[in-house]
Amino acid sequence: MPSFRAITIARRAFCLAAYLLAGSLACAQSQTLTVTAYPAVDEIIKSAIPTWNKLHPDVQIRLISREMENHHTAMTTALSTRSNLPDVMALEFSRLGRFASAGGLEDLAQPPYLIAQYQSRYVPFAYKQGTTKGGAVVAAPTDIGPGTMLYRVDLLQKAGVTEAELTQSWESFVATGLKIKARTGAYLVSNAGDVKDILIRSGVKPGDGLYFDAQGNVLVDSPRFVRAFELARTIRQNKLDGKIPAWSNDWTQGFKNGGIATQMSGAWLAGHMAAWIAPTTKGLWRVTQLPEKTWAAWGGTFYVIPKNAQNKAQAWEFIKLMTLNRDLQLNAFKVKDAFPALLDAHTDAFYDEPLEFLGGQKARQWWREAAMNIQPIGVNKLDNIADEVVNTELDKVLSHGKDIGAALADAKALLDKRAHRYDSRRLQ
Amino acid sequence: MQRLPRLSPELAPYVFLSPFVILFAVFGIFPLVFSFYLAFQTWEPTGGLAAMQFVGLDNFVFTLQDEWFWKSMRNTLWLALATGLAQHLVAIPLAYFIHTSYKRTRNAVVGIYFLPYITSSVAIAMMFSTLFSTDYGLINQALHGIGQIPGLGWLAPAQPIDWRNTAETIKPAVATVVFWRYLGFNVVLYLAALQTIPADIYEAATMDGAGRWQQFWHITLPSLKPMMYFGVTLSVIGGLQLFEEPFMLIDHRGGTDQAGMTTAMYMYRTAFDFNDFGTASALSWLLFLFVALLTWLTNLAFKEGRA
User: What phi, psi does A306 have (nearest 5°)?
Assistant: First the structure.
């Protein structure tokens, strides 16, 4: 049995240890920059930490990474309760609008940030994408997903068609698909819905969003939706799509065995294809611009600072390092296929290197061209619902033969109801 | 040397109760009260708690007029009815069969039926995704195989069925998984009830010349009624709250034309995809009222039978 004295000593030692621990935690807290991100972006941040430590040896970076969905849910919770807020959060392109509209993020256009002085260094559409309707710049772009089309050159040759036929117009795209299907048996696209998704991005008026204009009026019965639905229906009726959802087994299998002739996507898909989706098809794929010179972006990452963050000055230093440092931007591109949002990085010789997987094509130049042509699209916080409404109506058209006019009118009615509901609330 | 203060006997019960009470208050009562409060608010969560605005009954009115809410209710009812009925209609005879036919291996047999219930839903979803696959799935291959048997050709579809991407087959596919998963649970319930029926009633019936079928119909079924009430109530509640299986097996939006979107899934999406926590809360309370109503009706139905 230990003596009382021993217990007293042990207790004192414990108190001292606890005191020291608490003290060191407090010290660490004042010099820690918390950054939250999701896969791939977390790796990019990790590889930038040595550079950061050289510049700011007194500030440690604490990186918290979560799976994509969880990350955005966690960030919503953090902003809503204003607890456990990081100093910097990464946000994905498609979710940015939702976070930007609520007013929980710092306006980087204001002092001390003054991001506008760097505007000319960012890819134009990416910078504008981080700007709200009120003119606040709430997000700095770090990577973008310029959209192009990957196609199987061997299938085109077998079908006796050319790349020009494929991309001349959307109608010629479908006509070429008919030939490919007849002569090789391959589907033109994995899913007719993909074509709809691009076509509704074609011909968006400046200032408009995909589904709503700047005043919040619903646009889903406009001609671009009619055309998108008609083309998707033509593709489905002619059995030119495999009804295959992206990222499913059938999808990757289709790329491996030549069952799918084209796939429209962001620049990063070529990297995934080469690395794990279909490495055996090396040399069979090529990149080209989307039909009819349509320009669109798939994904991308932005950094934001929450209004209630603890360490805003360091947060801004971090964002500047990640988005404006040419070497780091290039490294992210080389290692993780994160296409730079920084224009300085676009002049590197890396862009002129041939890509083995794409048969020696200098595909990065195509992506660079696409990046410069993409236009910013206005965001609305009902975009997610609108997307779901439109997809559901497209399902009805494709699988139940619903009339396109009626489908789009129904979509509009559903969205009108929701949009007006928010209007009346604002009046209260 | 200081001594720890003694816990007074008056306080002791409360101290010992506190772990549960505190946890229940934080994770049980608070969310309940908060969601009730939220049901009368509009809230853009990324704007912070200050962004909340009182809107009265607006969320309830909107939900009751919302086409998608009713669509999700139809989907949910379809699935609850199809899986609930099938589960009980199969579980009762199956339990009776296991009860009368297995003696020493009974626990092992019950264990096998119970296994799906305790298997991770992710593993189940992955397994059934493979089974339901269009070109390589065992289910389509089995159908094709049946079609090869002379005279049974009409049973096999001309094309392989795309179970998980066709609006018409999504619900049957989900129902199959739910049925498979919860059948064992109901079998265990009914087996427990069967064991409480005194053996002398059967003996007496045998002496009176009742056959096995008559014994099942006139002794077993009436004695199982209290357990049926319990089992059906659980199925009603579970069926109306169905979420995991369609969410994992199909996708988060319920598949083509939202054919597999249950009310619980729509509620989840309204909150986390569409960022409308107020409407989602109103929706959850409406669903609760509906569950309560059906549970009450179940109670009524069994009460009359018992009288």
Answer: -65, 145
Label residues B274-289 b or e (16+ Cβ within 10 Å = b): bbbbbbbbbbbbbbee
Spatial CA neighbour of B186 closest among B98, B101, B88:
B88
Contact between B135 and A250 using a beta-carbon 8 Å cutoff? yes
Torsional sign, CA A327, A332, A337, A343: negative
Judged by CB atoms closer than 8 Å, whether chains meet at A80 and B49 is answered as yes
CA distances from A249 to A244, A254, A256, A261, B142 (A): 9, 8, 11, 17, 21
The pLDDT score that the predictor gives to residue B1 is: 58
Predicted local distance difference test score (pLDDT) of residue A26: 46
pLDDT digits (tens, 9 = 90+) for A155-173: 999 999 999 999 999 999 9
Query: What residues of A are in contact with residue B62 (Cβ under 8 Å)?
Result: 421
Residues 247-276 of chain A whose Cβ lies under 8 A from any Cβ of chain B: 249-250
- pTM assigned to the model: 0.84
CATH code assigned at B249: 1.10.3720.10
Token duo for residue B288 = 């609760």
Indicate where chain A has its CATH 3.40.190.10 domain(s).
31-145+299-352
Task: Domain A31-145+299-352: give its CATH superfamily.
Answer: Periplasmic binding protein-like II (3.40.190.10)
What is the interface pTM, i.e. ipTM, of the complex? 0.82
Do A245 and B165 make contact, defined as CB atoms within 8 angstroms? yes
pLDDT tens for B214-236 read 988 899 999 999 999 999 999 99
Residue of B nearest to A420 (CA): B62
Backbone torsions φ then ψ of A140, nearest 5 degrees: -105, 125
Which among A7, A77, A421 has CB closest to B62?
Answer: A421
Distance from CA of B27 to the nearest CA of A (A): 16
